[in-house]
Amino acid sequence: MRTITDLPNNPSHYSFVEKKSEFISDACHVSSLEEAMDFVESIRLSNPKARHVAYAAICGDNNGRLCERMSDDGEPAGTAGKPILDVMRASSLTDTVVTVTRYFGGILLGSGGLIRAYSRAAAGSVQNSKMANIVSCKCFSCKIEYTQLRMFKHLLLNHNAEVMNEEYGVSIELKACVPCEESDRFLEAVKNTFAGAIIPDFCGVCSRIC
């Protein structure tokens, strides 16, 4: 999966005019559907004279499932939100919202024309955006000694893992995020390197932008 990395305060942008109607698309990264709805509302507020603000949003939940939401915002059913969502699906996007604002020009486009226009607008803002891959990871908490820290971090580096949190006391409590495809090899490497002295404790799943 991929995500757009442009932020809500500076989204990716694309616009064009079709038969006197202006179509303006904005796309950005969001971490939840609630954030996506906040962005849609901000677009509506900044375009008070627009006839429609259609949108689609895709976000991953804590269990790795994708949640989707879309709206035609008054356009005929299936002619606005669905074409935007189809563009996002075709680009394997998640944690992303795309809006298309339409200023009506007085000429009806018909269902086919609307679908093409909303698809073109969404594709334009997606193509103009900055993107990054999203990697599914497993999180592990580990208790390690100070003398083990350097070697342990070397193993993390070798398996494309990332330290999420470190707490220093008598020993070190460390939480690491390991790509799912590397997790079994990582656990085997920890076992072999430290002869069972470090036992990573699985504590959930997460996603990481790379």
From TrEMBL:
GO terms for cellular component: cytoplasm. InterPro entries: EFG_III/V (IPR035647), Impact (IPR023582), Impact_N (IPR001498), Impact_N_sf (IPR036956), Ribosomal_Su5_D2-typ_SF (IPR020568), UPF0029_Impact_C (IPR015269). Pfam families: DUF1949 (PF09186), Impact_N (PF01205). Residues 142-196 form the UPF0029 domain. SUPFAM superfamilies: EF-G C-terminal domain-like, Ribosomal protein S5 domain 2-like. Residues 19-123 form the Impact N-terminal domain. One of its GO terms (biological process) is regulation of translational initiation. It comes from the Bacteria. PANTHER family: IMPACT FAMILY MEMBER YIGZ, IMPACT-RELATED. Belongs to the IMPACT family. This is YigZ family protein. It comes from Gardnerella vaginalis.
